[in-house]
């Protein structure tokens, strides 16, 4: 069978993760990369075909991709790049601003249907895997709430989307944002409660920020804490540190989390559903999930399905490298 031809859009940490993941997926090949800074990418990958993102006619002709995996940030990149690229090629992205997903889906669905393409939006591990687990838990335990928690350990978990949002602010040189779950909230659910949590009841956020000389730190801290969709509903602690300290103490991209739901079955028998994942590298985890969805969207496209989709719309078998015979024999 012909290999799925993958094009990477944006070559940062997630883009690097996608490139590594393709090597573990024998039914795929990386045909090239498009970027706003192609010269930077060419220095790192001199043998790789690299084009400017705006040179649409060139990369379409030279790369002829089956699917583009969009690896930019959700605050500024994906809202622009998703709609622009879905006009030309099937896409997969990890848009993670939960409150804006319905609007983003509607826009991508309209564009992809008009263009005759297919687009998977908002996939990764949350939104993405956790979205699916929340839906399954609520289906298996009707009337329950399924809660997602992130950053279960003492150091919390590094959020790429929130870190990227910090780096878009004027005066910020570099930043990392760690999400911390509130353990007492998780235990309430495990004990059988089904509370109505506000967002700030479940997590708090910790920011480590490197700024330019002369920046008004008090004003910037207030700007961070009031950023809608990212920090506004949460207790947020902002730490201003040096680049050296950031690189030495907060290197790496660990993250983890769980989905928990509790309820009853039958005549009141207690029941709990819990799913957990742990990633030493958040960007590589996201990349692996994006790759699986790229396989799924190509298969759906070949079946004639057009428009926008999420993980909730794609059969699990479509995301697997394995044949139906293998899935039936070894995974059922």
Which terms would index this structure?
332 residues, alpha/beta, Dihydrodipicolinate Reductase, domain 2, 2 domains, four-stranded mixed beta sheet, 14 strands, 25% strand
Plain-language structure description:
This protein is α/β, with parallel strands linked by helices and 332 residues long. The protein folds into two domains: 4-126 and 283-331, NAD(P)-binding Rossmann-like Domain (Rossmann fold, 3-Layer(aba) Sandwich); 129-281, Dihydrodipicolinate Reductase, domain 2 (2-Layer Sandwich). 38% of the residues lie in helices and 25% in strands. The chain is built from 13 helices and 14 strands. It has helices at residues 13-22, 38-44, 56-63, 78-86, 101-115, 129-140, 160-167, 183-190, 217-225, 243-249, 282-302, 316-319, 324-331, and strands at residues 4-9, 28-35, 50-52, 67-70, 91-92, 118-120, 146-150, 157-158, 172-181, 203-211, 235-240, 255-265, 269-279, 307-309. Helix 1 (13-22) crosses helix 11 and helix 4 (78-86) runs parallel beside helix 5. The two termini are 25 Å apart.
